[in-house]
Amino acid sequence: MISASLEDYLEFVHNTILEKKEIKAIDISKAFNISRPSVSEALIRLADMDLIIYEGRKGIKITKKGIEQAQKTVKKHKILSDFFTEILKIDREQAEKNACKIEHVIDDEIIEKMKKYKESKLENNEQS
Amino acid sequence: MISASLEDYLEFVHNTILEKKEIKAIDISKAFNISRPSVSEALIRLADMDLIIYEGRKGIKITKKGIEQAQKTVKKHKILSDFFTEILKIDREQAEKNACKIEHVIDDEIIEKMKKYKESKLENNEQS
DNA sequence: ACATTTTGTTAGGTTTACCTTACTATGTAT
DNA sequence: ATACATAGTAAGGTAAACCTAACAAAATGT
Fold first, then answer.
1. In chain B, which residues have pLDDT < 50?
2. Smallest CA–CA separation between A84 and chain B, in Å?
3. pTM passes above 0.85
4. Which nucleotides of D are covered by protein (CB under 7 A)?
5. Angle at Cα A15 formed by Cα A12 and Cα A19, nearest 5°?
């Protein structure tokens, strides 16, 4: 099982690669406000788990396994954050912040029910 | 700030004292499946934070500050678990399990909105 | 081309939350 | 009363996730 911290970093690696085609260790350091050595260490652990391929300055690549992992987290994040904003009327910033923490501990079944609930709620609103 | 583990132990101390009038270190050890030395260590940390008064075999007492802390956690736990069962139709066991983890990371504002949401939903159901 | 800045690594340290092994003190049972 | 079991402590260890200081390599600016 992957830790919350590593999951966060992997999610960021994934999102950044999608957005900007590449990512460097320093980007993670800046994004999460952690030291460069801590990023090195984390990337080595992610590589040990075959979630990324890390070759120092040569770049960070995400593996198939890593993409699958990251997508699961991204999906949870999105459903949580949408549920919070659209159903509970939480402001975006706070919804995002809480999604970031809850995505690491919540079960898939609850996420699925949140998604279904939101969908059925929005259908009803369209009819009214 | 208190850690998730310590918050769990404090919550259990509080609930057990309410239920059975007293609690021993060994009870925590059994409930959370952690070693006796780990419990000792945790209780010392809780005592350092003035959340409990710990005098070894003489017993564990919870302070005013500890009760307040524990009640906050219990409240979050209950609102989460009720929201999951009543709104999202999650079964009790899974709702409890997830509440246990989410209660440590979720903001008060979201908890409040969940509570309000559930209350207004139940009102509507009474009318229909 | 050379100096400076940027990026990453090494080495060593801290804290939290666990663990095991071994010891001590307390309670119980006969 | 003594032997045994239970509860707690002491000592020492591990792994994760962070840190700083110092160094090395690479990229950039002039």
1. 128
2. 8
3. yes
4. 6-12, 16-22, 25-27
5. 135
Distance B124 CA to D16 C1' (A): 48
Q: Which domains does chain B have, with CATH numbers?
A: 4-67 (1.10.10.10), 71-127 (1.10.60)
Strands (E), chain B: 52-54, 60-62
Distance to chain A for B21, nearest Cα, Å: 32
Give start and end residues of each alpha helix (H) in A49-86.
Answer: 64-82
**What is the per-residue pLDDT for B122?**
77
pLDDT of res. A25: 97
- C-alpha distance from residue B2 to each of A52, A94, B5, B30, B84 (Å): 33, 21, 8, 22, 25
Tell me the per-residue pLDDT of A69-111, one tens digit each, with 9 for 90 and over.
Answer: 999 999 999 999 999 999 999 999 999 999 999 999 999 999 9
How far is CA B85 from its chain centroid?
A: 18
The amino acid sitting at A84 is: F
Q: Is B65 within 8 Å of B10 (Cβ atoms)? A: no
